[in-house]
Amino acid sequence: MNANSAIARLEMPATRMQPAAARGDRTAQDWLTEVRTAILELRRQSAQAPRSGGGFLESVGQGLALGAGFAVGEEIVDDLFDW
Description:
The chain has helices spanning 3-22, 26-48, 55-81. By secondary structure, it is mostly helical. The termini are far apart.
């Protein structure tokens, strides 16, 4: 289950608890607070999660970029110390 489906599953009971919480039911208010906190945490984690999904080709692309970065860095170091 991903974060979005977990959020969707938590929003339904939260919606059902709102009327009781609005009437002053302390237990409903407490549960609603807990559910909302969980939803907010899931949204925060989902927003911070790295976006991936390119699989093999994405990994190859990252590897090539990393290799190119090392090559450029090595060239700069060589230029600095090559009098």
